[in-house]
From TrEMBL, chain A:
Name this polypeptide is given: Formate dehydrogenase subunit beta
Gene3D superfamilies assigned to the protein according to its UniProt record, in alphabetical order: 3.30.70.20, Single helix bin
Matches recorded under NCBIfam families: FDH-beta
Basic and acidic residues compositional bias, start-end: 19-29
Gene that specifies this protein: fdoH
Protein residues bound to [4Fe-4S] cluster 2: C61, C174, C177, C189
Cofactor note: Binds 4 [4Fe-4S] clusters per subunit.
Lineage: Bacteria, Pseudomonadati, Pseudomonadota, Alphaproteobacteria, Hyphomicrobiales
Residues annotated to bind [4Fe-4S] cluster 3: C114, C117, C122, C157
GO biological process: cellular respiration; formate oxidation
UniProtKB/TrEMBL annotation, chain B:
Keywords, alphabetical: Cell membrane, Electron transport, Heme, Iron, Membrane, Metal-binding, Transmembrane, Transmembrane helix, Transport
InterPro entries assigned: Cyt_b561_bac/Ni-Hgenase, Di-haem_cyt_TM, FDH_cytochrome_b556_subunit, Formate_DH_gsu
Transmembrane segments: 41-61, 81-101, 140-160, 175-201
Membrane topology according to the record: Multi-pass membrane protein
Record's GO cellular component terms: formate dehydrogenase complex; plasma membrane
Cofactor(s) listed: heme
A Pfam family it matches: Ni_hydr_CYTB
Protein origin, superkingdom: Bacteria
Protein name: Formate dehydrogenase subunit gamma
GO biological process: anaerobic respiration; formate oxidation; respiratory electron transport chain
Family indicated by similarity: Belongs to the formate dehydrogenase gamma subunit family.
Record localization: Cell membrane
Segments for region (Disordered): 1-27
């Protein structure tokens, strides 16, 4: 058993968060001087092989964060709601998978939610300064006061996680219960998880625990068991233990090799700089042209010619050879 | 009323580049009606939308310009207004398109004009052919705007999550955003050209403010158009179009 | 009884050999943390804790109820949160999806708040006072018992039973309530006495 | 549970059959995952559905609902045939060696003494051969053909893997794989635990399902040891406590019995409760019955219970039938024989079978009193909810009083968990509105009734007016007062009979345990098995020291467990005949030469020498029972009987319909579909989902979000055959009623080949009704048959026959 985190203290002096502003390592649409010393990285480890799909994590998340999800319908499956929403930060996804090697049915149940990437695509895509911050312990958190609701974070995210609220038009996702972690607690989902399929601690501890679990799985014939800590996003602060780590996508579409989309990279990278340069160049070229060529003015002669034309007096013919395009 | 129905008193078709309201009024100097009130209102709505879109768009495009959101009442308002202004632009521009498309059809002299672009840039118009209501540069702006706005509205709808989130995949939205951004850069450049041309070519502003240019302006920049207007002026009272004033 | 909360934790891990979590180690010292923080405030601060047991299944998970207001001081207590008790040997702080949402059942829209009476043939409940409801119940019991009590059977054996009234007892009340219920029901001679155990 | 939740971590093999622990008891299931992670334990799930428990199992085998006994007898047969037996344990700690008297026999599904007319057995022949010394005859060599072991061998011989496949639909290779894994646990150093729940109890032969596994566990030597046991995962937070306290028609707290009318007086009553040991030197604990009974009566009637009036014996009602269980009460109600009915925190309209019959009964009451924290369907049975509850209120003359009660968060007291721990809790919130505790309500009813009887007189007022009700505030007894009363106290000083100057017990003090109870009226105690819970040392149920010496999972200083704070029942059986643990790495207790010591409270007299006293001290044999004499109505060994509604006739006894001694009320026969009835071709079963708790959490927003709407589960094959779409509406109906639900079409249910016939399964979760936050739905009991287990009347919710068709959904009118 992974040692449970002691119950929280309710004393007023226990409330002081142990990290905050000063520990912000990245801030959306802002330049940040990273803190000189990084906090110990934290991580949540989701052991899919121990998960029984009970949705305690979902319930605990709703309760702790005071979220009111709609009461929906049954759609012929166990998932509910059917997708993440601004009020559902985490969701059990169920996959009935027949293992082609053993022909045995496996019910793969994965808790979906923010992965808290080391290189967060949401933060990269976000245009609103300070709407998304990354603390040096690895938590990626949305600051709703700064959020403008553009939804760029959704496009930036390689895991399709953030959702925009129709109520306050800001983006929501799992905060890794930053309010709890800040007082030395684990996230609400982790605390609730009946089988300790979710554990929380430092990232190093989590990797160690994952090794312990993977050994057990290999002893049970899951040769491909492994840890999901995808390097494409610099690793994540939510990791999975999978029985079939060679094919993450069988777990309800967990990306095999997640990375920030090259399109997003192009948009937030090259396009931004090249675009600004091009626009600047266009404006500068105009200015330069004006300085060099001077204004293009109508002359007295032009006016006279026009008057003559209007009066029916034939204006002077065009200069020879200048109007090849015209029929005389 | 479009120019399609216009006929000269002798029964000939009015040339494509003569638009309703275009007229010559002799005097000192000659006054040429170039844009009707409707066209001008339409233009300025379009122009305003485009500027607002550029400002709000740039605010969301790069953090360095995020401060521009203040003009719209903050980030949330900017995000909410931008697409609606886009809708205004789209319909407004559609109006301009219907008004101007015919006059912007390519003409033979456009080639020559383009070939002599260096003379254009140097203001040596005596070396250019006589031009209709629009030169090739203006036509480029017109058709460029038309195409870019269609791309922008299409890509904009794809990324307008508030109403259209469900209809496309995230990958499609990503592409849309990239396309929208690039297109926006291009349209802003086209806009710069358009505005600069109006600044550089003196006497142009009057066309979109008072609706009129001087005869000399028309003689210098759009002589063919001026000649056509003069040619259609025989019996102005019978003309079905609405005069500029 | 002693409500002093033990802060003991289960530091012994079985099998894995990992040291206790070093969660406490991340973050700087408390003094430095006083700088403006973007993290939401921890909303259990200054609440009152009460140790309780989950009301659902017989795993009997330990829970802590956090409320605004302290019943022990005679105040009104409004429950703001319910969470697993990490000190509890069985659940170690964990809860199932029902347990994790216990606050919702306490505060359910369909909680009953006053005695109600549905009259014969009526299509609605009407509010009644506790006194009226209890008097009506006692009277109905007395009348039925007096009319149908069986003191002896056909063989003349004293049987002292009352079969025309039945009582179905709960499954989530305390032992103490159950015992009080047992005494009251048995003393009347009711035999049609059962509980949820069968289902 | 014989063991405790935390003890499951000590096991090597978990068999989940007749339950779905991951789904219904997730936090207890944690200890399965711990055993797997740390001990390399394996998990086997045997269930009609590949369920949430199966999703983390090492091995899953399908089984048709209602065929568990065939499977279990098959396992026993496999173990016996392949010598997978813990011989030392079986010979010493079970009744394998006991010789059964002549006359007992079994043939074609029936034991000797069957009376078809009465649907009952004459069980006189079901007993041991008693020797001239007055003790049961045993044959240590197991040679006697009539010894229990040989009778068992013979009884299970027909349950071959082939027969198991024919009856259960479990492919032979899968059955054999399970059998092999189970067989490995016959060594003294490997244990298996059984986790079961309503999947075994809710059958017309539910008790025998459980016996089947208990017998297997005994053969493997897994009872009384760490990581072993028979672990009933009880459903409600205090259903164990309510049962312990005897809130049933035929019980007195602590599993004593309400007298029957054949026991006209106390002497007659006690005459059958001597519990004389059946083996020399054996301790037979029930010999203390009289002490427990008299102490209970003193607690119940105080000074009015005297030696002269046989401790108030006649204050107790006498039974004329085995029990007035809920099924019988509702049958009486339907027949107009009940006038008043109380439902305390219970929703029978949803919880018992055949909703139509239940509603008919409720409508014949004069007064229904419902005490509940929440709105219930029962309290609103007269309310028109269109297709969900189609009634005309004007036609229903029942008056209904609905009383608002507090819930767990607002009251104080103790609850008994599955592992028999009595845990105290404190209130955390104020009750809403005018809600009151159930104790207050019961006290108010009692006081008012007593007042009426005092004033008006009436039928036999004695037990009411003499009820011991000496609480500080009679209108609102405190939890502590009641807890002290259950524990028991000394009423008069008791002196040592040998040395009359020596005071043994002092009047006014709390008892330290049931060992101090006396049968002379000098002690009182409401529930002997709880004695020790509130002693002079204080409230033992409120103890919160979670230390765990030896990492054994016992937690002796956490709360209080009955009996006597013992955490594993029969723990003497964890040691061999010399008193050494079978598995030294899993020591529980051991004989240190003078006494029993260890991590748990020994389940034997502390100085009872090993080899002299058998470990099963509650049985006069001193052993456990592979063969249960006449203690069960439907036979000393389990026999495979089909459910009352079944797709096939009983393969081993084609003439026997259902459990031959299960009680069926006259009206109900016609409500059962015939065997193999083509109108109801699919095998229905009901179960709960992890997102919901019975009919409570549909009142709760969060849980309604997690599972908002009723559904049924069917295989892809059946969906295809019937043209049912994933997420589409279906109508499911039985001979008793119908429901509409969404279709969850899944690979986790497969059709089964039963005796050559393809049988489809329709799974019906139970949680929906017409009140609450979740979408309106139909309770599963619209479908289920009104018949219970032959011994304890648990309704047959798990196996019945239905039909299904695609639908456009319920017509909302």
């Amino acid at each position: 058993m992974f040692p449970p985190i002691p119950n929280p203290s309710v004393a007023s002096d226990a409330a002081t968060p142990r990290f905050g502003e000063k520990d912000v390592m990245r801030r959306s649409a802002s330049e940040v001087t990273p803190p000189a010393q990084r906090l110990t990285e934290v991580a949540k480890l989701i052991d899919v092989t121990k998960c029984i799909g009970c949705k305690a994590c979902q319930a605990a998340c709703l309760e702790w964060n005071n979220l009111t999800e709609e009461i929906g319908f049954n759609h012929g499956v166990y998932e509910n709601p059917m997708d993440l929403t601004p009020d559902t930060f985490t969701l059990m996804r169920f996959t009935e998978w027949v293992n082609p090697e053993t022909e045995n049915l496996e019910w793969l149940i994965r808790k979906d939610g923010c992965m808290h990437c080391e290189d967060p695509g949401c933060l990269k895509a976000c245009p609103a300064p300070g709407a998304i911050v990354q603390y040096s312990n690895g938590i990626v958190d949305f600051q709703h006061d700064n959020c403008i609701g553009c939804g760029y974070c959704i496009k930036g995210c390689p895991f399709n996680i953030p959702r925009i609220s129709k109520v306050d038009h800001t983006a929501y996702k799992c905060t890794l219960c930053s309010d709890r972690v800040a007082v030395g607690q684990g996230p609400a989902c982790q605390k609730a998880c009946p089988t300790q399929a979710i554990v929380f601690g430092t990232k190093e501890e989590m990797k160690g625990w994952a090794d312990f679990r993977i050994k057990d799985l290999k002893s049970r014939g899951f040769d491909k068991a492994g840890l999901y800590d995808p390097p494409g996003v610099g690793g994540t602060h939510v990791m999975y233990v999978l029985h079939h780590a060679d094919t993450p996508s069988i777990y309800a579409g967990l990306p095999d090799n997640p990375r920030i989309s090259p399109i997003v990279d192009a948009w937030k990278g090259m396009t931004k700089y090249v675009g600004l340069a091009v626009m600047g160049f266009a404006a500068a070229a105009g200015l330069l042209h004006y300085v060099v060529a001077g204004p293009n003015r109508v002359s007295e002669e032009d006016e006279e010619n026009a008057e003559r034309l209007a009066d029916g007096t034939p204006p002077p013919p065009p200069p020879t050879g200048q109007h090849e395009g015209r029929t005389p | 009323m479009t120019a399609d129905n216009l006929k000269t008193p002798d029964g000939n078709h009015v040339p494509d580049d003569v638009e309703p309201g275009d007229a010559v009024r002799p005097g000192h100097p000659v006054q040429v009606s170039r844009y009707t009130v409707g066209a001008r209102i339409n233009h300025w709505i379009t122009a305003t939308s485009l500027v607002l879109l550029a400002l709000s768009g740039m605010a969301l495009f790069t953090p360095k310009l995020f401060f521009l959101t203040a003009l719209f009442g903050g980030g949330q308002w900017t995000r909410a207004l931008h697409p609606w202004i886009g809708v205004v632009l789209f319909f407004s521009f559609a109006g301009l398109f219907l008004r101007f498309w015919k006059a912007n059809l390519p003409a033979r002299e456009d080639g020559t004009w383009l070939a002599r672009i260096s003379d254009v840039l140097r203001g040596r118009e005596e070396r250019l052919p006589e031009l209709g209501k629009y030169n090739a540069g203006q036509k480029f702006v017109f058709w460029g705007m038309s195409a870019l706005i269609i791309v922008l509205i299409a890509s904009g709808i794809v990324m307008w999550d508030q109403y259209f989130y469900a209809f496309t995949t995230i990958e499609q939205k990503r592409i849309a955003i990239l396309v929208h951004a690039i297109t926006a850069v291009v349209i802003i450049c086209v806009w710069i050209i358009h505005v600069y041309a109006a600044i550089w070519v003196k006497g142009t502003f009057g066309a979109m403010t008072r609706g009129k240019v001087t005869g000399g302006w028309a003689w210098r920049h759009h002589r063919k158009w001026l000649r056509e207007l003069v040619g259609t002026r025989k019996r102005p009272a019978s003309r079905p179009g609405t005069p500029a004033e | 009884m002693n409500m002093e909360l033990s802060r003991r934790t289960f530091l012994k891990t079985s099998g894995a050999g990992l040291a206790g979590t070093t969660l406490g180690a991340f973050g700087f010292s408390e003094a430095e943390a006083a700088v403006a923080a973007a993290v939401k405030p921890f909303h259990l601060v200054n609440t009152t804790e009460a140790r309780n047991t989950c009301t659902y299944c017989s795993v009997a998970c330990g829970i802590i109820i956090y409320s605004k207001g302290d019943l022990r001081k005679g105040e009104t207590a409004d429950i703001v949160h319910i969470e697993g008790d990490a000190d509890h040997p069985t659940n170690r702080g964990t809860l199932c999806p029902k347990g994790a949402a216990l606050r919702d059942i306490v505060k359910s829209q369909t909680r009953l708040t006053q005695p109600m009476l549905r009259k014969a043939g009526s299509d609605k409940f009407e509010a009644v006072s506790w006194d009226a409801a209890l008097d009506k119940i006692a009277r109905a019991m007395k009348d039925d018992r007096d009319a149908n009590f069986i003191a002896t059977n056909s063989d003349g054996v004293t049987v002292n039973r009352w079969l025309t009234t039945g009582f179905l007892a709960a499954s989530a009340t305390t032992n103490e309530t159950a015992f009080a219920t047992y005494k009251v029901v048995r003393s009347t001679g009711i035999l049609a006495f059962d509980n949820q155990a069968r289902v | 549970m014989t063991n405790a939740w935390t003890d499951i971590k000590n096991t090597d093999l978990v068999v989940i059959m007749g339950g779905n622990a991951a789904e219904a008891h997730p936090c207890g299931f944690k200890w399965v995952t711990e055993a797997k992670a740390n001990r390399g334990a394996k998990l086997i799930v045997v269930d009609p559905r590949y369920n949430r428990s199966a999703s983390v199992a090492d091995y899953y085998a399908p089984i048709r609902q209602g065929s568990d006994i065939a499977f279990l007898m098959g396992l026993i047969n496999h173990c016996i045939s392949n010598d997978k037996v813990q011989w030392e344990y079986v010979k010493a700690f079970t009744n394998a060696t006991f010789v059964v008297k002549e006359g007992y026999g079994y043939q074609d599904g029936l034991f000797t003494g069957y009376d078809e007319e009465k649907r009952d057995y004459n069980r006189d022949t079901w007993d041991y051969e008693i020797g001239p010394d007055g003790y049961a005859v045993v044959d240590e060599t197991l040679q006697n053909p009539r010894c229990v072991w040989n009778l068992l061998k013979q009884h299970v011989a027909i349950y071959t893997p082939e027969l198991v496949e024919r009856i259960c639909g479990t492919p032979k290779d899968k059955f054999l794989k399970v059998a092999e894994m189970v067989g490995e646990c016959s060594t003294p150093t490997k244990t298996m635990t059984s986790m079961y729940a309503l999947g075994w109890t809710q059958h017309s032969k539910g008790s025998q399902n459980i016996r089947g596994m208990a017998m297997l566990q005994l053969i493997l030597g897994n009872i009384g040891v760490r990581g072993g046991g028979m672990n009933a995962l009880r459903g409600h937070s205090n259903i164990q406590g309510l049962t312990d306290l005897g809130l049933m028609s035929n019980l007195i707290p602590g599993y004593l019995n309400i007298p029957t009318e054949k026991e006209a007086d106390f002497t007659t009553y006690m005459s059958t409760r001597a519990y004389k040991p059946l083996r020399p030197n054996q301790m037979s604990y029930w010999q203390n019955y009289r002490k427990f009974f008299v102490s209970f009566m003193k607690s119940m009637f105080g000074p009015a219970a005297t030696a002269e009036n046989d401790w108030g014996y006649q204050y107790l009602p006498k039974l004329d039938v085995a029990s007035y269980d809920v099924l019988r009460i509702f049958d009486m109600m339907k027949n107009g024989k009940v006038n008043l009915y109380f439902c305390q925190g219970f929703n029978p309209l949803q919880a018992f079978p055949n909703k139509a019959k239940l509603a008919e009964g409720l409508a014949k009451l004069k007064l229904l009193v419902v005490m509940d924290p929440l709105q219930t369907e029962t309290a609103r049975f007269w309310e028109d909810h269109g297709t969900f509850n189609k009634v005309n209120p004007a036609d229903i003359q029942t008056e209904v009083i609905q009383l608002p009660t507090t819930c767990f968060a607002e009251d104080e007291g103790s609850l008994v968990n599955s592992g028999r721990w009595l845990q105290w809790h404190w209130p955390g919130g104020s009750p809403p509105g005018e809600a009151k505790t159930d104790t207050w309500i019961m006290a108010q009813i009692h006081l008012r009734l007593k007042e009426l009887y005092k004033k008006e007189g009436g039928a036999f007022p004695d037990p009411i007016v003499n009820l011991n009700w000496t609480y500080k505030d009679p209108g609102d007894p405190t939890a502590e007062e009641l807890a002290r009363e259950m524990n028991g106290s000394v009423l008069a000083d008791v002196y040592d009979p040998v040395d009359p100057t020596k005071k043994v017990l002092e009047a006014g003090k709390q008892l330290s345990g049931f060992g101090q109870m006396r049968d002379d009226g000098t002690t009182a105690g409401g529930c002997w098995i709880f004695s020790g819970c509130f002693t002079e040392a204080g409230n033992m149920m409120a103890r919160r020291d979670n230390s765990d010496p030896g990492d054994a999972g016992m937690f002796l200083k956490w709360s209080f467990a009955w009996p006597a704070n013992r955490r594993i029942l029969y723990n003497r059986a964890s040691c061999d005949l010399e008193g050494k643990p079978w598995d030294p790495s899993r020591k529980l207790i051991e004989w240190d030469g003078a006494k029993w010591t260890g991590y748990d409270v020994p389940d034997i007299a502390p100085t009872a020498k090993p080899g002299e006293v058998g470990p099963f001290i509650m049985n006069p044999e001193g052993t456990s029972r592979l063969w249960v004499r006449k203690m069960m109505r439907d036979g000393p060994f389990p026999v495979h009987y089909e459910p009352f509604e079944s797709p096939v006739a009983n393969v081993i006894a084609p003439k026997v319909r259902g459990n031959p001694v299960a009680r069926v009320f006259a009206d109900d026969w016609k409500s059962f579909a015939d065997i193999g009835d083509p109108a109801f071709p699919y095998a229905g079963t009901t179960y709960r989902l992890t997102e919901h708790f019975h009919y409570w959490t549909k009142n709760n927003h969060v849980n309604s979000v997690l599972q908002p709407e009723q559904f049924v589960e069917i295989s892809e094959e059946l969906a295809k055959e019937k043209g049912i779409a994933l997420g589409g509406w279906v109508r499911v109906w039985s001979k008793r009623g119908e429901l509409y639900a969404k279709a969850v079409v899944t690979k986790r249910i497969k059709p089964m080949n039963i005796d050559g016939k393809l049988v489809h399964i329709v799974g019906v979760p139970i949680h929906w009704g017409f009140v609450g936050a979740a979408r309106k739905g139909f309770p599963a009991n619209t479908l289920t048959p009104f018949v219970g287990d032959a011994n304890i009347e648990t309704p047959e919710f798990k196996a019945f026959m239905v039909n299904i068709e695609p639908s456009t959904g319920p017509v909302v009118a």
